Amino acid sequence: MIHKLYGSTGINVSAIGFGAMRFADQSQTEECASLVKYAYDKGITYFDTAPGYGKSEELLGVAFKTMLKERARRPFYVSSKTMGGDPSSIRRDLETSLTRMGLEYLDFYHMWCLLSPEAYAERKRNGALKEFDRLKEEGLIRHICVSSHMSGGDIGALLADYPFEGVLLGYSAMNFAFRDAGVEAAAAARRGVVAMNPLGGGVIPREPKRFEFVRTRNDETVVEAALRFIINDPRITVALAGFSTTAQVDEALRAIDGFQPLSEDQVAKIRVGIREAFNELCTGCQYCDQCPQSIPVPYYLDAYNHMVLGNGPQDMINRLQWQWGIKLEDDYLDRCNQCGLCEKACTQKLPIRDRLAAIRAEVGKARLAVKK
To answer: What homologous superfamily is domain 3-277 in, according to CATH?
Structure first.
C-alpha cells in the first residue's frame, strides 16, 4: 500500500480510500461490515461516509467494533460530513454520527455540500465555522475539512478564507480540468486533497473501451489506469473509491501494486485526450435534482452520457427505460418550462436545458418509431 501525508496534519493515509456510499445491499449488515473489514485488512486506512448515505454510518459502526480493537497497532481514519448551517444542527449531526459509528471522535469532519460561494458565506455568517472550532477544541473532531462541488477557482478562494485542513472534491479522468485550480490551491497551501468519484461516478468502469487511452501499461484494466492517473498526482492525497464487492477492492488495490510514476509524456497524453473528449460529461453529483416540475434531471443527464459514450440515442433510451424506469410515453420532458434552476445548481455549468431538449427530440423520434 502507498501512503501519503494528509496535508500538514502529520497523518499518513492510504492512497486508496473506502467510500462507504455504494454498498450493494445495505440491508445485509454483516456482508457490508465484512466488506469494510476486508478493505482494512488489505491495507486501506481512510474510510469516508456521511449521514445522507443511507445506513452507511451504522454499517461502518458494525465493522469498527472489531477494527477498533486493532487500531492502536493498525491505525485507520474516519471521515464524515454535515450539511448543518448553524451551530446546533452541526453539533447534532456530529453527535449522531459518532453514536452510529461507536466513535469518540472523527478524524476528518467536513462542511458538506457547498454549491456556491454564497452558500459558504451564509453558513459562515450563521456561526458554522466557530462551531467547528469549538468541536475541535473539545476533541470531538481532529481536523476541520470542507467538501465542495464548486469550480476550482471558487475552491481556491474558499481555502484562502479559512484554514481548512483538507478538501474533498470531485476529480477524475473525466473532469479534472474543471477542478484543477482548486487542487493546485490546496496543494500550494499544504492541505489534504481527497478525490471523490475518481472513476467518474461509475462511468469509467462501465465504458472501458471509450477510456482505453487512459491505459499506459498492457497489464492494467481501465479502472486501474484511471486510479493510477489520480494516485500519480502528487497533489492528491487519497483516491476515494466506492466499493460494493471484494473484487472491486482488489481491482482498486492492483493500481497500487508495482506502482511506477507515470512519465510527463504519459500524463500529458492522457490529459490531452481527456480535455478533448470528456470534460463536458455530467459527473452525477445530482445537485440539479430540484426541478419544480418534478423532472428527474440527473437521470436524464446520466442517460445523455450513455448516448455520448455508447452507441447513440438507443443506448440513451435503453438507459432511461431499464436503469431509471422512465418509459417513452412518460411526459417528464414535456413539462420543462426552461426556468433554468437546474443550470444554476449545476456544479459543472453544463448546458442542461439544451441537453434536455436534445433528449426530448430523440425520445420523440423513438415514440414515432414505435407507433409505426
So the answer is: NADP-dependent oxidoreductase domain (3.20.20.100)
